[in-house]
Design brief:
Layout: H1 14-35, H2 37-45, H3 67-72, E1 85-92, E2 98-104, H4 105-121, E3 129-132, H5 141-153, E4 156-159, H6 165-175, E5 179-182, H7 184-196, E6 208-211, H8 225-233, E7 237-244, E8 249-252, E9 260-261, E10 267-272, E11 285-291, E12 302-308, E13 310-311, E14 323-324, E15 329-330, E16 335-337, E17 340-342, H9 344-352, E18 357-366, E19 372-380, H10 388-400, E20 405-408, H11 411-418, E21 429-432
Parallel strand pairs: 3-4, 3-5, 5-6, 6-7, 18-21, 19-20
Antiparallel strand pairs: 1-2, 7-8, 9-14, 10-11, 11-12, 12-15, 13-14, 16-17, 18-19
Helix pairs in contact: 1-2, 4-5, 6-7, 7-8, 9-10
Length: about 425
């Protein structure tokens, strides 16, 4: 019997999926017109008749929503009375002020459903035991969503939280989870801990790792440097996911590992070029989402800032929804350095594949000629018997054609920068450009 968390719509032909989404879009627009102060005003100011927005292509008649809108007019996005709010979530934004997302009981149920179908897509089922290495506190949506989803699909969850390798291994030994869910770079830290403490991690109960917040694959769906580094050390199944608080949805990989699958009942997705028009399938553009089924604070044509492409050929898993590529980078993080255009993930991929690099952070600033300058501050694992700065520059030239400035700093000093007091995950990129956001 097919799992209740394998939605039939994901296995339908593309034209069926499109008509399904257009019916959902009509419902979403009517809901916003009736309940959202922000969108009601947008429709009026732009003389938009939502009855004329009948197809996905018609969405282009509606202006985009940006993160600055959420920050400036946050309360106007709320579509329900405050007594219906069950959970408050915040995320930092481009202007530095936190953005609040208010979730109703229906929204939490939608979050649970989203994660249940996402975990099922990745091959999980009742009976699996998932060790959750993400926080449920600090107003963080993801950790709560994972917990609700694992619970809903009938698998077991172990809420360990982030950090503390010793506690992670003690939990693995005691409770025998088969799946870990965490930020991928943390896996390297728990491997280091295992090797330093003679833990036979290769023969542990863990068979699968689901990564969040960091990419594991390149644009050809091969493991990137970080993913390969983990795989070389620990031969487990690796899955990547793409999500955000604003989406309240996830793009999960299936066992064939060829992109994050779209859930058409939860999101409408557009990929937008520099001219703000949709790009052809397979081309890189900005991911723009319209949430479906959100009750508290739904979003319409929201610009995520993430750059990616979509793949439309059917997947071997049987799903015919499109798949989203690994994220190329953040649009406002694009760097133009010495005639080369690049994104921070291209830089971090080199650093993650350098075994003597313990930690690092990237700083982009504007130099005296009003162009981008890139400095990488690196903490070293021991003292290499060679010139580490020269070697790193050579590695960068080989991979990205240019060599940023390299500064060597104490590991503890870099770690303090990576983990500021209020951060929920490691911070490795700082944009200090005059025109940066």
């Amino acid at each position: 019997m097919k799992s209740p968390f394998c939605p039939e719509i994901e296995f339908q032909e593309r034209d069926v999926i499109k008509k399904f989404q257009e019916a959902k879009l009509a419902d979403a627009l009517a809901y916003l017109q009736a309940n959202s102060p922000f969108y009601k005003k947008m429709f009026a100011d732009n003389r938009i008749d939502i009855a004329k927005v009948r197809t996905l292509e018609d969405l282009q008649l509606i202006p985009f929503t940006g993160k600055q809108d959420l920050q400036k007019y946050n309360h106007d996005f709320l579509c329900v009375k405050k007594e219906k709010i069950i959970d408050y979530i915040t995320t930092s934004g481009t202007l530095g002020d936190p953005v609040t997302f208010a979730c109703t009981e229906a929204d939490l149920e939608r979050l649970a459903y989203n994660e249940a179908i996402s975990f099922t897509c990745a091959g999980l089922k009742p009976g699996n035991i998932v060790q959750l290495m993400t926080t449920l506190d600090k107003r963080f949506m993801a950790g709560l969503a994972y917990f609700l989803g694992i619970r809903k699909m009938g698998a077991s969850v172990i809420r360990v939280g982030n950090g503390i390798p010793e506690l992670q291994w003690d939990t693995i030994k005691r409770l025998q989870p088969d799946t870990l869910m965490c930020i991928p770079s943390f896996i390297l830290k728990i491997i280091d801990y295992a090797e330093a403490n003679n833990i036979d991690y290769k023969n542990s109960s863990v068979k699968r790792i689901i990564g969040i917040g960091e990419g594991l694959r390149d644009q050809n769906f091969k493991l990137n440097s970080l993913g390969q580094k983990i795989k070389d050390k620990w031969d487990v199944e690796l899955y990547a996911t793409y999500s955000s608080t604003e989406m309240s949805a996830t793009f999960p990989e299936c066992p064939y590992s060829c992109g994050g699958h779209h859930h058409p009942e939860l999101l409408i997705v557009e990929i937008i070029g520099e001219d703000d028009k949709p790009v052809p399938d397979g081309e890189i553009g900005e991911v723009v989402i319209t949430s479906l089924g959100v009750e508290g604070m739904p979003l319409l044509r929201f610009r995520t800032g993430d750059m990616a492409r979509i793949h439309t050929e059917p997947c071997k898993c049987g799903r015919k929804t499109f798949r989203i590529s690994p994220i190329v980078g953040r649009k406002n993080h694009m760097i133009k350095y010495k005639g080369t255009t690049l994104y921070p993930p291209a830089i971090t991929d080199v650093l993650n594949n350098t075994n003597y690099v313990e930690n690092f952070y990237i700083t982009v600033s504007t130099n005296e000629t009003e162009t981008d300058n890139v400095t990488i501050t690196v903490g070293l694992r021991g003292t290499p018997p060679f010139d580490a700065v020269k070697d790193l520059k050579d590695r960068f030239r080989a991979k990205i054609r240019v060599a940023p400035d390299i500064v060597i700093a104490p590991v503890d000093e870099v770690r303090k920068i990576n983990y500021p007091a209020m951060s929920r995950k490691p911070v490795t990129f700082f944009d200090n450009r005059k025109t940066g956001n």
